[in-house]
Amino acid sequence: TMATLEITSPDDLHLHVRDGNMLKAVLPHTTRIFSRAIIMPNLVPPVSTVQLAKEYRERVMAAVPATDKFEALMTLFLTHNLTPDDIKAASADGTVKAVKWYPAGATTNSGGGVKETDLPIVLPTLQAMAEV
Fold first, then answer.
1. What residues contact 127, with CB distance under 8 A and at least 6 apart?
2. What gap in Å lies between CA 111 and CA 64, rounded to an integer?
3. DSSP three-state, residue 17
4. What pTM did the predictor assign?
5. Three-state SS across 19-60?
6. 3-state class of 9 per DSSP?
7. Alpha-carbon distance 74 to 32, whole Å?
8. In what side-by-side order are the strands of the sheet with 36-39?
9. Is the Cβ–Cβ distance between 60 and 27 less than 8 Å?
10. Closest CA to 38 of 24, 21, 20, 56
11. Signed CA dihedral, 50, 104, 81, 43: sign only
12. Which of 2, 7, 78, 95 has the maximal Cβ count within 10 Å?
């Protein structure tokens, strides 16, 4: 016999919804199908602090239609300014679920990202992620 698997409430594990009018236009297409999504942080300015993640989450949740049940899983943009203490605070707060690395200049709104050659500079931050 063939086994079946029914996914009743899928997650989107990599969602770009941008901000403003674009956010309001595209998010309902996701929330109709998905119950949760990992929200990418490459805005201008990038979502690089817990406070910015909380503010962005408020805007995301305000764009969810009242008929949809949806949870926004927020991420931080890895920058040279993101510290191990920021990671520990983000973990303790619970708003942020992940950190996204965008190599500088590699994609949309990634100018503030960390170059591959600069990864040793942010190693303490990466190590803090492993610890929390």
1. 84
2. 29
3. coil
4. 0.92
5. CHHHHHHHHHHHHCCCCEEEECCCCCCCCCCHHHHHHHHHHH
6. coil
7. 19
8. 11-15, 36-39, 71-77, 96-100
9. yes
10. 56
11. negative
12. 78
Residue 122 DSSP one-character state = G
Residues 75 and 53: their CA atoms lie apart, in Å, by: 7
Q: Is 80 exposed, middle or buried (0-12, 13-18, 19+ CB in 10 A)?
A: middle
Rounded Cα gap, residues 85 and 124, in angstroms: 10
Backbone phi and psi for residue 40, each to the nearest 5 degrees, phi listed first: -75, 145
Question: What residue type is assigned to position 122 of the chain?
Answer: V
